Amino acid sequence: MSALLDVEAIEVSYGAAQALFGVSLAVGEGEAVALMGRNGMGKTTTIRTICRLMRHHGGHVRFAGQDIGAQAPFRVARMGIGLVPEGRRCFGPLTVRENLVAAARPGEWTLDRVHKLFPRLHERHGQAAATLSGGEQQMLAIGRALMTNPRLLVLDEATEGLAPVVRQEIWAAISALKATGLSILVVDKSLKELKGFADRCVVLEKGESVWQGAPGDLTDEIATRYLGV
Amino acid sequence: DPLKVGMITTLSGGGAGLGIDVRDGFMLAVKQSGDKEVEVVVEDDQRKPDVAVQLADKLVQSDKVDVLTGIIWSNLAMAVVPAVTAQGKFYLSPNAGPSQLAGKGCNKNYFNVSWQNDAFNEAAGAWASENGIKKVFLMAPNYPAGKDMITGFKRFYKGDVSAEVFTKLGQTDYAAEIAQIKASDADVVYFFLPGGMGISFIKQYSGSGADKPLMGPAFSFDQGILGAVGEAALGVKNTSHWSKDLDNAANKAFVESFQKEYGRLPSLYASQGYDTAQLLLSAKAKASVSDADAFRTALEAADFASTRGDFKFAPNHHPIQTIYMREVVKEGDVVTNKVIGVAMKDHKDPYGAECKM
Amino acid sequence: MTFPLFLEQVLNGLQLGMMLFLMAAGLTLVFGVMGLINLAHGSLYMVGAFACAGVAAATGSFWLGLVASLAAAAAAGALVEVTVLRRLYDRDHLDQVLATFALILIFSEGTRWLFGSFPLYLDIPKALSGSVSLPGGITYPLYRMAIIVAGLAVAVGLFGLVSKTRLGMRIRAGDADREMIAALGVDIDRLYTIVFMLGAALAGFAGALVGAIQSVQVGMGEPVLILAFVVIVIGGIGSIKGALVGALLVGITDTLGRFLMPWALGFVMDASSAGAIGSAIASMLIYMLMAVVLALRPGGLFGSAA
Amino acid sequence: MRAETLFNLVLVGGLLAVALIAFGLEETFTITLVTKVAIFAIAGIGLNLALGQGGLVSFGHAAFFGLGGYAVGILSSHAQNYEPLMEWPFLVEGTTFMPVLWLVAVLVSGIAALAIGAISLRTAGVYFIMITLAFAQMIYYFAISWPAYGGEDGLSIYVRNGFPGLNTLDPLSFFLLVFAVLLLVVFLAARLQASRFGMTLEAARQNALRVTSAGISPYRVRLVAFVISAMITGLAGALYADLNRFVSPAMLSWQTSGEIMVFVILGGVGRLAGPIAGAALFVMLEHFLGGLAEHWQFFLGLALLGVVLFARGGLAGFVLKERGRG
Amino acid sequence: MADPVLDLRQVTKSFGALVASDHVDLDLMPGEIHALIGPNGAGKSTLIKQIAGELRPSSGTIRFNGEDITAAPPARRATMGLARTFQVSALAPEFSALANVMVAVAPRAGGVFRFFGRALSDRALTEPAMAALQRVGLENRAEVPVSELSHGERRQLEIAIALAMKPKVFLMDEPMAGMGPDGSQRLTRLLADMKAEAPILLVEHDMDAVFALANRISVMVYGRVVATGTADDIRANPLVREAYLGGDDA
Ligand SMILES: Nc1ncnc2c1ncn2[C@@H]1O[C@H](COP(=O)(O)OP(=O)(O)OP(=O)(O)O)[C@@H](O)[C@H]1O
Ligand SMILES: Nc1ncnc2c1ncn2[C@@H]1O[C@H](COP(=O)(O)OP(=O)(O)OP(=O)(O)O)[C@@H](O)[C@H]1O
Ligand SMILES: [Mg+2]
Ligand SMILES: [Mg+2]
């Protein structure tokens, strides 16, 4: 399996404060990778670096065989990275439908298909995104990323704020997406679901990738040591 | 003896054309005199009164000038002149003559070489009465100079006033006023709208289908403005103490040399700048500015060939001069003014009586 | 006062409103949609008027001048956006204020440098001179009719562009969250350049059209700027419909105020003071209107509440 | 923080030094310029309180600057003409005594700000910018067309007002007086910035919801800040009237509001001494460029543009960042 | 039985055709944690906003310690003792974590209209603020600007602020959201402590936490409270299982 995304020993800083000290991970074509770690360990920073919203000063980021270190964010997105950001960041003044349409690029994912995945978004299509409930916004953020027809879907806090049943739906949806061959990189706090879903896990600790492996190998000892459970 | 002149005038922003004309007229006269002893320091007041005051301070304190001049606008003059004359400096006004400085607030060191603000309007009022105009529509911006203009007009006007309309300072659209004019029973519209306001009004008026003749003081029909309104202004009558076709030798020489030097027709303001410099040079030839009394006497004599022909000072140091009636005509390709008669001979401002020097 | 005169004044008010809308249209786009406080909007308006006057004088054709005004203002807009404003989107609004204030100085003095200090000549085209007769015995200048039509066309076009097209959605999305729209694959930099050019071209267009019946001179842009801001703030920022309604309201208030205030005061004082005082109140009227509208609806008439 | 203190001291000290050196060299006009800088700086510090700390971008501070100026102009012209301001219901006479004039200027601006702020603060963001502008414009047009005190022509104060024990006509003495006021204002602003009130105001700027849910009404905090801000700017207007011995509606115009704002942004928004740096740079540019070239405003524009583009956070931000790294 | 601290009667809020709160009756007793759960968009946050005063109910009344506060402005409710945390963090980003807490302490420690003293060295502010940070485990991040805190840390800070207000009621909108597994566990312990100080109205989707903490649970669906009961009642309620909990969860 050739790696679609290949992150190699990246170092990233906020001003003078370094946040990542060599994070490496790879996501293969069609693979689902879970990024884990306690609060403040650098998951979001890693994801932002992949999407070029932050610059690294050490290491490499490659996507589909290209070094994307010098690319503008929009180019990376067009190459096929779809982001569901932490905190959702829906376009508040725009309606639900406009949020989706603004992101649209040609491909299998269309407005109809997203509506089918999240019927709630269909119901609320004319409402300003800012007034959606938290969970509705999360659905919108995922739908919006799908509208870009990505090859790699990156979800930061995929199910934050969702009702258990919706959470299950989302996991089901992401699993279905995975089944279609979409590659996925996901951050979430629910260990159980991540383990059930991911092909591989990467654990971050204080800005370093300290452990990688199949979910089955994620022992309780590792979980207690790095994830605090 | 050397003579140092400080010129504060408007060289930037919307009203810069006037300042530039005054400056160019003034400098032309200085250049023609060939007098190497005259030094002129020019400063830009940006049409802001506070800046003008500070520049006056600078010219007096740092540059140590003997004479100041150059201010275009009444409100700036009101800010600067009292302070400058109080410090014993001479001020020669090449434009703007607020009534206060002609009356109660007159000063022995203040000379107005242009006109008292009311002059053109008084002459226009007199002319209107003599030429059988029964009813006028008066219009001016709502600020002191505008109100003075209207008062001035009414002073010698015997007929009726159909309406008095005050517009907003800086107004650009006159559709509402034009509708009122069309609906009124006036014979003539007399208006004072300086600068861009006048340009907008005339352009809009000419396209509106209104047919009442327009009249006004020269400011709205100055050469710089006629260039912008073009034929829309044809036929408009306006009062002025100067016109480029005034038939005297000094004026002919001035018009020709100005055109040669700067490549454009001189305006009213240029002639005033030119006359101001001429007056100053004439005084310098007679007395040293270090002897203030002698210099003042030399100024009072006004012993120079004015572009407007006869020129002398009243006791309040304001001009006694003839005001002409001009008409906007087309000469070849150029829209310009032509003198059609005298509106008021030897006009003298009415405020002098209050002046105690 | 007669009734036809009153009607004519209402018409004048509407017409002034359309003119204001035309002047504000570009600003609404750039300010409401891109979130950029562009004080130099008035300068672009001036650039348009000067370009039109310059080209019309050289070629004798107003229409060529109009084309030139669009081109010149768009080019100036693109230049300014690429060299200056682009660096300021992620900064504080106040940096934009200072930068565009600096641009006003540069444009004004630059224009004076090129064209001199005297107002330029610009006349309405022959095809649009003359007047039309309306029912009720009102004659109305054809050119002003043309401005109304142009204003309506711009309103409809802009409304469609901003609210109906994907381009419009992306611009608005970019305003809400620039980083996020880039992360979704939209080249927001290029998009903003295009929008800014469009806004600038609209300013130039207004400058040329309105300049033909006003004074084409340095400094003509600043009063327009203030009025345009008043208009879009009354209407609610970001709303084209709001800008249109705001413009008409301001136009009618201003026209009728100028006309009715002195008339009404004439009943209680002599004509001369009524004229002066009435006009003083009239000149404050649109600002009063704005204050009242905002005090009652802090987000403007059609804006989302601030 | 220490770098900033040093920066502030250098600025304030520099102002004094320039004035004293100018006095030594008998460059009287330079003293006038420095006085102007100090006065604009006071106006800017006033605005900075609302704008920098409170995030209240007032585009109408010229109203307070002008009201402060007119308070001085009106009172002293009455005093100079020996005409009482009013005789009924009680006698109010003019005065030429600066402390009283200042007090009146501060009160008048404060009261105006209370009224304007009470309405304006219902709005936020750009709406606030415009509604403050609207009020300032109303006052401006009123001043232009109201004939009693000169209208557009303005109002002259023939002799500068007096301050006990000081010859205010002497440029250096007047400068020192203004400078003392500036020091006082800087001191007050510094204390205010660090105080609970300053902290709360700042928090309200960053997140009003945060403040509300802590049980504080952001509206009240902002209104108080707006009033204090206006009072300081009004005081500057009072001083400016005496500097020029003249007041006019130009002080009330939107260009003046814009300029005060430019001082603040140029110097560094929210920085204590930012307005001093901004005013100094602006006045310097205006003075030197004005003498250099006919189209000096073109170059002024370029210079300002340079500052925005290359000095993030204004002069203060620029200088202090450099210092912090070194 | 003691009087409820918070008492909602027939509270209704509609947005156009959508009824986000539909005649809601709800109360909060002293010493309890009352959890409010329900599908996304059920109207939980809307209800919290009405209690906090950010939204005005279309009809119905809200009483706080017996006093009708339906129309009171939000700041006043906060002064009366209602503290809330936000679903999406509402913090002053340029301030340090400590200063954010201090702002909340000030109104209860002498008021905010003090213009002279240095706030940062005012121990009446810093000490309670520091104590609150300690309780949520942020004491080592006290001086860090909020903009540099990670998402999870911000959530912790929100709670510290609520704690520092020493309120009579906590309104918490999804405090667990964004917390890592370890964070959730620690927060669960903290909330269990906090209810001794003041009762908590808790909106939360983390069922582990809800079932571990709540004395009572109300379920909201389409703006209506459809069930109220103990954890076991709710877990057993087939309607809730279907509409909210889903197949296997909890
Ligand atoms: N804008 C910023 N400026 C400075 N430091 C930051 C900034 N954002 C994050 N950090 C720091 O970088 C580190 C990593 O943060 P990051 O947001 O990547 O963590 P995370 O693993 O996503 O945590 P969480 O689960 O809480 O979201 C943290 O120590 C955080 O304080
Ligand atoms: N201002 C508004 N205008 C229109 N609809 C609104 C507005 N505010 C909220 N809504 C709608 O009201 C419903 C309730 O929203 P609310 O935020 O209270 O849900 P919630 O129960 O908190 O959901 P979640 O668990 O996802 O946060 C949602 O469908 C939302 O879209
Ligand atoms: Mg994160
Ligand atoms: Mg919610």
Automatic annotation (TrEMBL), chain A:
Gene Ontology terms for molecular function: ATP binding; ATP hydrolysis activity; branched-chain amino acid transmembrane transporter activity
Keywords noted in UniProt: Amino-acid transport, ATP-binding, Nucleotide-binding, Transport
CDD domains recorded: ABC_TM1139_LivF_branched (cd03224)
Keyword presence, Nucleotide-binding: yes
Gene3D superfamilies reported for this sequence: P-loop containing nucleotide triphosphate hydrolases
Keyword set includes Nucleotide-binding: yes
Residue ranges annotated for the ABC transporter domain, each copy included: 5-229
Family: Belongs to the ABC transporter superfamily.
Record protein name field: ABC transporter ATP-binding protein
High-level lineage: Bacteria, Pseudomonadati, Pseudomonadota, Alphaproteobacteria, Hyphomicrobiales
UniProtKB/TrEMBL annotation, chain C:
Domain of life: Bacteria
Transmembrane annotation, as ranges: 16-37, 44-64, 70-89, 101-122, 142-162, 191-213, 225-252, 273-296
Pfam family, one: BPD_transp_2
One record GO biological process: amino acid transport
Any single GO CC term annotated in Swiss-Prot or TrEMBL for this entry: plasma membrane
Keyword Transmembrane helix included in the entry's annotation: yes
InterPro entries: ABC_transp_permease, BCAA_transport_permease
GO molecular function, one term: transmembrane transporter activity
Localization annotation: Cell membrane
Membrane topology: Multi-pass membrane protein
Ranges in coiled-coil conformation: none
Keyword Cell inner membrane among UniProt keywords: no
UniProt keywords, alphabetically: Amino-acid transport, Cell membrane, Membrane, Transmembrane, Transmembrane helix, Transport
Family: Belongs to the binding-protein-dependent transport system permease family. LivHM subfamily.
Protein's name in the database: Branched-chain amino acid ABC transporter permease
Organism: Zhengella mangrovi
UniProtKB/TrEMBL annotation, chain D:
Transmembrane feature ranges: 7-25, 31-50, 62-80, 100-119, 126-149, 169-190, 219-240, 260-285, 297-320
Pfam family name, one: BPD_transp_2
Domain of life (superkingdom): Bacteria
GO cellular component: plasma membrane
Subcellular location: Cell membrane
Membrane-protein topology: Multi-pass membrane protein
The protein, known as: Branched-chain amino acid ABC transporter permease
Native source species: Zhengella mangrovi
UniProtKB/TrEMBL annotation, chain E:
Listed Pfam families: ABC_tran (PF00005), BCA_ABC_TP_C (PF12399)
Example GO molecular function: ATP binding
GO CC terms of this entry: plasma membrane
UniProt-listed SMART domains: AAA
Keywords (A to Z) from UniProt: ATP-binding, Nucleotide-binding, Transport
PROSITE patterns the record matches: ABC_TRANSPORTER_2 (PS50893)
Stretches assigned to the ABC transporter domain: 6-247
Keyword ATP-binding: yes
InterPro entries per record: AAA+_ATPase, ABC_AA/LPS_Transport, ABC_transporter-like_ATP-bd, BCA_ABC_TP_C, P-loop_NTPase
The name this protein goes by in its record: ABC transporter ATP-binding protein
Organism: Zhengella mangrovi
